[in-house]
Amino acid sequence: MPGPVADAKCLDAVIRTGEGEPRLWFYGTQCLWDGEGASPQDIGSAFPDLPEDFSSQLDAVTVLADPASDDAYELFFFKGETFYHRAYTSTDRAFVPQAESRGVRSLISEAFPGLSPQCQVSPDAVVVIGGVFFFMKGTRTEPALWRREDDPLHVLLVPLFEGDPAQAPPGDAFDVPPDVLDSVVGVVEASRLLGERLRGHTPLPPLRDRGDRTPWSSAAADQERTRRATNAPCAASSTHSRRTGRAGWPWAGASTRATSSPCWRRCRRSGARPR
Q1: How far apart are CA 101 and CA 103, in angstroms?
Q2: What average pLDDT does range 216-231 have in this prediction?
Q3: If 125 and its partner were Cys, which of 40, 49, 136, 201 is the partner (CB 3.0–4.6 Å)?
Q4: What percent of the chain has pLDDT over 70?
Q5: Of 40, 28, 29, nearest to 2 (Cα)?
Q6: How many angstroms separate the CA atoms of 87 and 75, rounded?
Q7: Residue 186 contacts by C-beta under 8 Å, 6 or more apart in sequence?
């Protein structure tokens, strides 16, 4: 740790663009690069584009590398429940704003969906590894993906299917007519959040899988019940699963097989684990 940072007894954040590269330390209203002869700078002077409230007492700062360029980075400055980010070019111990970029202020809770309420406000530190943001707050460390402000709002449309649950649905059962898709886009577009873009999607194609079911009981009735259950079509969903054709994403054509294994029954009685 550089002497001025240690003397200040205050460290808000530290960043660097890679292994072996000099680090930039943030403390109070100032920042300081590693190395002999480096002098502290006001954060507002080192980053003149920063809003005034982000030029002191930062909660965290982190860097996201641009895979399309070796010296391009997106810098994130976190404070309270908001953060500011902009694209920069890394030069010799300096970050220069890219001319075509613009700085954006956003809410942590909106740009990083899925974070707990604790990590949405004043994180202790934020680290980017492999494009994934890791928010640290107290004893918590939570991963999150950055949702860019210009990313579209995705809407998945799954038509209601009224077929026979015992029969696999036809291949076009979950198709969305183009006029219905256009109508949904129009309705949601009219009430979308400021700055959101909308993109409509049809359901995913059917998934196919194969599995084996082994009944614990050797009774003929139980074996027959298992055989009937495994021959019915399945439905899978990201939030729930039901053995009907009326809910969830289609998992038509799932192949299952009912088997009877004396080994499993012997192991269950003896308490041993099957091999």
Answers
A1: 7
A2: 73
A3: 136
A4: 71
A5: 40
A6: 6
A7: none
Structural domain including 210 reads 152-266
**pLDDT tens digits, one per residue of 129-187:** 999 999 999 999 999 999 887 766 667 777 777 777 778 878 787 788 888 888 887 77
The residue among 57, 50, 62 whose CA lies nearest residue 80 is 57
One domain, residues 175 and 118:
no
pLDDT of 38-49, one tens digit each? 889 999 999 988
For every residue of the chain, which 3-state class applies, written as one string?
CCHHHHHHCCCCEEECCCCCCCCEEEECCEEEECCCCCCCEEHHHHCCCCCHHHCCCCCEEEEEECCCCCCEEEEEEEECCEEEEEEEEEECCEEEECCCCCCEEEEHHHHCCCCCCCCCCCCCEEEEECCEEEEEECCEEEEECCCCCCCEEEEECCCCCCCCCCCCCCCCCCCCCHHHHHHHHHHHHHCCCCCCEEEEECCCCCCCCEEEECCCCCCHHHHHHHHHHHHCCEEECCCCCECCCCCCEEECCCEEEECCCHHHHHHHHHCCCCC
Can you tell me the distance from the alpha carbon of 259 to that of 53, in angstroms, rounded to the nearest whole number?
67
Using CA atoms, how far residue 256 sits from 30, 212, 214, 238, in Å, is: 64, 5, 10, 21
Q: Is residue 62 part of a domain?
A: yes
Global pTM exceeds 0.70: no
Number of structural domains, the chain?
2
